[in-house]
Amino acid sequence: MILYRTQACSGDHWVTQWRATVVEAKTDVRGLVAAGYHSPHVDKIELGTSRESIVQALNHSDVNRINWDGDEVKI
Fold first, then answer.
1. Does 61 have pLDDT greater than 80?
2. What's the CA angle centered on 74, arms 25 and 48, to 5 degrees?
């Protein structure tokens, strides 16, 4: 399963949003930048569908891209 993770920074905090499509992720970027966030980044994450993969993803759902990288999407 492919998911898209959008992250942006507000100084000392990161916001993370997950979307099913790249279009939704890019819309999130525009909204975050308009709200004052900077350094937006979208990653394409390939997530397994096994129970173990889903548990791992849930446990890492708010992890910064430095600790759980994906394929960068140009925004």
1. no
2. 60
State the DSSP H helix or E strand holding residue 28, giving kind and residue range, or none if neither.
Answer: helix 22-34
What pLDDT, in 10s, does the model give residues 38-50? 999 999 988 888 9
Which sign does the torsion angle of CA 58, 38, 32, 30 carry?
negative
What are the CA-CA distances from residue 13 to residues 3, 22, 37 (Å)?
A: 22, 23, 10
Kindly list the distances between the CA atom of residue 35 and the CA atoms of 3, 15, 25, in Å, as whole numbers in the listed order: 23, 12, 15
Residue 32 to residue 7: CA distance in whole angstroms:
9
- Write down the pTM of the prediction: 0.80
- pLDDT band, very low/low/confident/very high, at 56 (cuts 50, 70, 90): confident
